[in-house]
Amino acid sequence: MGGTVRRWEITDEFGQRLGCGVITAVILPVWFFLILFAVDDTAALAVAAGLFVVTAVFAGLALRRARRLPRSVELGGDAVRATVATLSRSGRREAPVDQLARVDIGTSLGVWPLRLTFVDGTVWRLPRHLDDLDGFLAALQERNAALVITDHNPPEPDGPPDGPA
Description:
By secondary structure, the protein is an alpha+beta fold. The chain has helices spanning 12-38, 42-68, 133-143, and strands at residues 6-9, 72-76, 83-88, 91-96, 100-105, 114-118, 123-126, 148-151.
């Protein structure tokens, strides 16, 4: 009996925000490089050169991180041999679901607030902005009953802050 493959993609809104961030990170060093040719003052030249170097390093890190960022997550196999896989521009990673020990949903301004921790200590970092995060977590829990899922985000209030109107 072959298992089905379920796939979760990052949301379009998150993909657009990520793209804008990477474009900004790449444009800033170009801007400071052009400023190097426009200034005559030695102090201003040193500041522009320093800002160019710092933003160039951030641009390199942003490009590397965007390349490694998983764009989709797949859950495949059957009840006996279920696997979880991430797909990014740098390749595909796959592991058995029964080796998954913990899922932590973090609070972060960064791109990686979802952490999958395996029994051997390996940690996969994923964006929390999947098209159906609750469905993904439920599917993982269904395939691995021993899985511990921890949400570190504060619960949202059920009603208005001042109580019922």
